[in-house]
Amino acid sequence: MKIIFLLGLVFPINMTSSSHPDTTETCKRPTRVSFNDHRLVHNIEPISLDNEIAVESNQVNNSTSADERSCFTSINNWWRDIYRRVKFSNDENNQQQVELDLTERNGGEPIQRYTLAQAFKPKTREQHLFPFKSPYRSIKITDKTSVSIACNDKHILLKQKSNLCLLNKQLTTMKEIPWTDDHVDMCWSSTLNRFILITEKIIFTLDENTMTLDQCSIQIDKEKEWSCGACSDSSLYLSTGDMSACLYEYTLRPAMEFVKEWPLSGGRSKYECILTFTCKNGKLALVISNVHIFQRRLDLRSTTTLERLWSVRLDAVAHCCSLNDDQWMLMELLRPRLLHISFDGKIVQEYKVKTSSIDIIWNAIQWDNDTIVTFTMKNLNLHKLS
């Protein structure tokens, strides 16, 4: 795959410098985009760095805007960092890792289906989801440093420029407060009746009535940074921005206290990392990437045991959205494609996106039984599902 496929999908973000926790190199990367898009872009298939990137960069210069060319340069820097880190690994370990991850076996059996999934009641809808109906309401996106959105029954929370904005069903801004962090991931906790905001070092809760931010007591090692988060009824799950496929579980009540660190790769791979994840009805849907063999997959796991229920191989890095009846939607970004996945891990519908890059769906969230919210580089949209 040529890196030129990235160009239409990135958006303008400011350059900063930050040290990556698991490398001695300095990672010159742009301000991190929510849902850990730093590592989303790191998961690009390998190419000849000096020649191919230069050729592709020259090709796009003639047909793209200054903002897009700036983003393309940023992507090159991201890729060079991950390439340096992976190529220094031991050849023998590399070969062992390739064999492990290509076979994807557990006890000699394929992991594609687990017996726990057979206990689910079949609920898959027959009608096609894609393409979505034209949005019945939209607003312009004014901040492209974060693609994170969260909602409860009444409101949507998102970052717009230097504010956190609370929107109603008409997408009218009801309340807003100043917000200075570029990176923020968000989720709603019905147990706390609060939004939870995850920044690189600090976790906050937000009261939608008073718009008051309270800092949580959760601590993180100085070498690490928080990346993503999601809630079940009883726990908060967090992932970090380093090369680690681990989830950190914390209780929600009576206080946020550490429960356990859950390694998801079973000790098989030091190259696997969690790109993004979401939680619904006692299940965690995680997009996991192996940056050594450049493979991505969606894992569905139990929130109580973290046992894998099923796994679906992905073509490209993606975001995930929960749907009605324990179903899921995947938004593949680098090779635009939408996937509708059933409760038991079967692909119900595959839809290859044919639209301008500015209208490609980066993130989505189901608001109620018949409404889905989509986030593009241009708009926040409301669509009817029926």
Explain this structure to me?
By secondary structure, the protein is mainly beta. It folds into 2 domains: 3-87, no CATH class; 109-384, 7 Propeller (Methylamine Dehydrogenase, Chain H). It contains 4 helices and 26 strands. Strands 3-26-25-24 form a 4-stranded antiparallel beta sheet, with no helix packed on it. It has a 4-stranded antiparallel beta sheet with strand order 4-5-6-7, with no helix packed on it. Strands 8-9-10-11 form a 4-stranded antiparallel beta sheet, with no helix packed on it. Strand 10 and strand 11 (212-215) form a beta hairpin. The radius of gyration is 20 Å and the shape is globular.
Question: Beta fraction of the residues?
Answer: 35-45%
Q: Which structural class should the secondary elements be placed in? A: mainly beta
State the helical fraction.
Answer: 10-25%
Which CATH C-level class of the largest domain is it? Mainly Beta
Major β-sheet strand ordering: 3-26-25-24
Distance between the termini: 36 Å
Looking at the structure, what is the overall shape?
A: globular
Instruction: Work out the number of β strands.
Output: 26
CATH fold topology of the largest domain? Methylamine Dehydrogenase, Chain H
Mean pLDDT: 78
Q: How is the biggest beta sheet arranged?
A: 4 strands, antiparallel
CATH architecture of the largest domain: 7 Propeller
Order of helices and strands: HHHHEEEEEEEEEEEEEEEEEEEEEEEEEE
Question: What is the rounded Rg?
Answer: 20 Å
How many domains would you count in the coordinates? 2
The total of helices stands at 4
CATH homologous superfamily assignment of the largest domain: YVTN repeat-like/Quinoprotein amine dehydrogenase
**Model regions low in confidence, pLDDT < 50 over at least 5 residues:** 1-63, 82-125
